[in-house]
Amino acid sequence: MDVVTVTADAESFTCNAYLALGERDVLVDAGAMPGVEDVVAEHTDSLDAVVLTHQHGDHVQELDAVLDAFGAELYAYADHPRRTHEIADGDEVAIGDESFDVVHTPGHADDHVSLLSESTIFSGDVVVHDDGAFDYGSFGRTDMAGQSREVLIESIERILERLPDSVSASEASAGSSDRRSDGVEHMYAGHGDEFHGDVEDVIRTALERAEKREPKYPDE
């Protein structure tokens, strides 16, 4: 599955919007970059769907422009005037060439979902590889109205519970053979860089930091 960050050249604040190309061309989040629909059109002329991780402005500002340009279906957890498919925890959604489980992951946003396949996670803002606070394992901010660090911690734990079995570095060195060696290796988060490697370790690092319950940013 080929994944393109269509907001990579944004000059103003936006989330990362990812175009997954394959059997089913799907955009994960629409972002807030004017003209994002034109970037999508450079890669496909038949966008099948947009799937939202959540509906914060930096993820949906250009949603109407994308839907108008392609007539794509809209998958979302929370109600939206243009939603064609309601998704809930435990549902499956076809993205690119893979089937993704929907994992409800509130804390940063009540309607937040993460999308998890055998090899890939679109984690939205609940957990990211790097941002302005931490590298190699960070988590969504929870200092604004309606957000909760405790709920976010539970959501990160839920992701870990739902990850396909994989062998950690320590288990591998100890000769463990009761878990598969092929785990989730591709992480596409709402902010920061994409990551390819031991995604489970990145998520566990983020969880450890979140569990300290310290302010993520000095001014929180």
From TrEMBL:
Compositionally biased spans, kind Basic and acidic residues: 191-200
Keyword terms, alphabetized: Hydrolase, Metal-binding, Zinc
Matches recorded under SMART domains: Lactamase_B (SM00849)
All residue ranges annotated as the Metallo-beta-lactamase domain in the record: 14-171
Ranges of compositional bias, category Low complexity: 165-176
Protein name: MBL fold metallo-hydrolase
Renumbered residue ranges of the record's region Disordered: 165-200
Cofactor: Zn(2+)
Membrane keyword on record: no
Pfam families documented for this protein: Lactamase_B
Organism: Natronoarchaeum mannanilyticum
Molecular function (Gene Ontology), one example: metal ion binding
